[in-house]
């Protein structure tokens, strides 16, 4: 049986960008914030109802975050939720020139 050679393609570090999604950087940031909220819930052993009791944020919102249903959330809302769970967000920004992608050149 002959082995097929596969080309390895390195991702950009942002799956949303690799999948050519709109607002890829914001989507990536939302996903990171959601993961941090889930870590805080797990660390403190909080159910979504207990998180609601502690923060005043709807249990349904915590369920949406756990299910990665982030469409209804803004970045500042996710940061506010993290703050209410007793954590703080520190953001470091690195701006670099965007690489020209082959699909962008053809548009």
Structure commentary:
The protein has a domain at 22-93: lambda repressor-like DNA-binding domains (434 Repressor (Amino-terminal Domain)). 52% of the residues lie in helices and 0% in strands. It has helices spanning 15-18, 24-44, 48-55, 59-66, 75-84, 102-106. The longest helix is centred in the N-terminal third of the chain and has 21 residues, at 24-44. It is elongated and about 60 Å long.
User: Could you give the order of the helices and strands?
Assistant: HHHHHH
- Terminal CA distance reads 41 Å
Q: Count all strands and give the number.
A: 0
Radius of gyration: 18 Å
CATH class of the domain at 22-93: Mainly Alpha
CATH H-tier superfamily of the domain at 22-93 = lambda repressor-like DNA-binding domains
- Morphology: elongated
Tags for this model:
6 helices, 434 Repressor (Amino-terminal Domain), mainly alpha, 0% strand
Question: Topology of this protein?
Answer:
Blueprint: H1 15-18, H2 24-44, H3 48-55, H4 59-66, H5 75-84, H6 102-106
